[in-house]
Each structure stands twice: as C-alpha cells, then as structure tokens.
Design goal:
150 residues, three-stranded mixed β-sheet, 5 strands, alpha+beta
Length: 150
C-alpha cells in the first residue's frame, strides 16, 4: 500500500515539475508562443497579403478600388453578408461569363451600397473568395483586416 501512494505522489510531483518547466520556458522565451494564437483586439489590424499572382483580376480590382478611395481595411461582419451583397449588386446587371466582384467584399462591414463592382472571370473571383475565406475563418467578427496587394 505504501508503494502505491509513493507512485501517486511521484506522478503529482512530476506533473507539477513539468508545468513549472513549461511556464519558465514561456516566461524566458525559450518556448515561443505564436502571436497567431492570440485573438486580435478591436484596435489591432491583421495584415493579409493577397496573392496577386494567383488571382490577378481580383488583385487588380482591389488595387483600383483602394486607389479610388475604397477602404483597404475590412472589418469582418459575416452576419451582414447577404444584405451587403444585395445592396452592392442591386443596380449592377449580370454579364454572361463573368462574376460581379465587390470591393470591399460583402463580408466586410465597409461593404454594401457604395462598394466598387468589377466584372471578373468566375475562376479568378471564386478562387480569390475561397482563399480569403480560408485565411480569415479563424478570426471572429469585428476583426479588422488590412488587405495588402503587391
């Protein structure tokens, strides 16, 4: 019976020792913690470098829209997507063989009735949309994202 208690107390001691070693490693920057795991504050801005080489039409549209005073910042607002899209595309007719690309995107609080619209091939537009969605899926609504388009 005495042996079992000894083993249990050894496990407890080893666990506490392990926790202290990890804590010291983090405190002394021996064990780095990625800043990607820390959610952004409302004041912070996440930079997202858009792959212009993969989606050149979308990149060109974003650059032109930002140059014409559209926001380079997108505040994520997934709940507003449908309403923003409805407002931004309301007076823009469809065109066979093209998608209507919005900047700021419908998922951005800044999108909506004053968004810049361009006709873009579906492969470029949908590929870019999928890429952006994958990059931003871990970020909560309210996150501010600055799009950097090289």
């Amino acid at each position: 019976m005495g042996r079992r208690k000894s083993r249990k107390s050894n496990h407890g001691f080893l666990f506490i020792l392990l926790v202290l070693i990890i804590a010291a490693g983090i405190y002394l920057d021996i064990i780095p913690i990625s800043s990607d795991t820390i959610p952004p504050t409302e004041q912070s801005v996440v930079n997202l470098v858009f792959p212009s080489d993969r989606y050149p039409e979308t990149a060109s549209h974003i650059k032109k829209a930002i140059a014409s005073e559209q926001s380079a910042i997108c505040t994520i607002d997934r709940e507003g997507v449908e309403e923003n899209r409805k407002q931004s595309l309301r007076d823009v007719p469809t065109k066979k063989g093209y998608d209507r690309d919005e900047w700021p995107m419908a998922m951005c609080e800044e999108g909506g009735p004053y968004a810049d619209i361009a006709y873009i091939t579906p492969a470029d537009n949908r590929g870019a949309g999928s890429w952006v969605g994958n990059q931003l899926e871990a970020y909560p609504d309210g996150t501010r994202v600055e799009f950097v388009v090289p």
